[in-house]
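Write out the 3D structure for:
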Amino acid sequence: MSIVAEVGYPRELARYAGKMIDIDAHEWAPAELWPDIFGEETRMLAEANAVSVEAAKDYYFKNSDSYIEPSDVIDKFTVWNAKGPWHKASYDMSKRLEYMDFIGVERQVIFPGDLVIISLMLLGQLDNPNFFGAITGDRRAYAMRMIKLHNDWVIRQNAWSDRLRAVATILGDTVDELYAEAKRVIDGGVRTIWLPCSMMPGGVSPAHPDLDRFWSLLEDSNTSFTLHVGNEAAFFKTLEWGNAPFFRLPEWNITGQVQLDPWTLGTWMLPAWNYMVALIGGGVFDRHPRLRLGVQELGGHWIGACGLGMDLWGEFGQTQPWSTRLKMKPSDYIRRNIKVAAFPWEPVDKYIEQYDFADVYCYSSDFPHVEGGKNPMGDAYKRLERLGEDVIAKYFVENCKWMTPD
C-alpha cells in the first residue's frame, strides 16, 4: 500500500507546488532575541518593548485560539496555526525555508517585524513622551539606527538564499540620503525595498524630478519597491481620530502591531492611495516604465476605485484634461506596474471581474501574522476557481514572479 506524504498546500494546488510565490510575509523575532539577531544596540528598545515570548501569550492573543505552544515542528497543523513568534520559522530563516518547502512556496517576500515597525511608529511619535518614553536623547537618530541594523540583517538573508526576499526599509531626509541607503542595500544583494508611504521619499513628492535617479536605480537593478501597512502616524500627524473607547475594545488589538478596529481598517490605505496617485499622476511610470511596485497588507478593495477615480478625474476639466499628458490611462499603469496582495478572505474574484485586474492581484499569507488566517491558500483558491485556470496561475505564480524577478 502506497503512503501519501503529508503536504502543507491544498491538493487542488498540487500542480503549482514548488512554484507558488508569497509576496507578503514577515519575520517576527521576539524582543529578547533582538540583540543576538540584529545586534547589541537593539537591547534598549527590546527591553522597552518588554514583550517576551511568554508575556506575548496574553499580550498578542488574549481571547484568541491562534496560540500554540512554542515549536519547531513543520506539519500541516503548525504551518497554518502557529502565529506570532512561537514557531521557530517566524525568525529562523533556515527553518523558514523548511516551512516554504512544505507549503510549496518557491519564494517569499519577508517584511520586517516589531523592531522596524516600532521604530517607524517612534518616528511618527517623536514628540509624544508617552510613546516608548524609555527611549530618550536623540530619538530620531536611534530609530533610524534600528532600521539600518535591520537592513544589515536583510542583506545577510538575501545573500544566503535567493528564495528569501527579505525587505529593506529605506528612509532619508534628502534624496541623497535615500539614494545612498538604497544603493548600499542593493549592492548588498537586496531585491525588494519598502518605502514607508506616510513619509515623502527624500523629503519630496514621489513625482519630483529630483527622484528620477532614485527610480532609475530601482529600475536598472530590477529592484521591486513596496508600500505596506505600519507607518500611518506620520501621514495623519495624529492618531487621535481613532482614540475613542469603541475603537479601543481589546478584541480588536489582537496582534500588538495593528489595530483591527473600524477606524483603522477604514483609513490605513489612505497613505498608499495618496502615494500611488502621486506616482501615476506625476508620470513616474512613464519615465520609468519598468518600475515594479507592490502594495501589501493594505487590503485589495480600494485599488480598483483608485484607478477608476483617476481615469474619471483625469478626463475632467474645462481646459485640457491632465490625463492627456500621460501615455496610458491611469488604471493601465496599475495593470502594468503594480501588484497587490489582497487579504485571503477578501472577495478578490469580484475585484478582478469588476476592474479587469487579473494581472494585478497576488497570493500572500502574511505569515506569521494572524490577519492571514489559517487557510490562505485554500480560501483564495475557492474564490478564484470559478474564474478559471489562467486567473489561478496568475494569482499564485505569474503575477508574484513579476514582483520577485530572477
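The first helix runs from residue 34 to 38.
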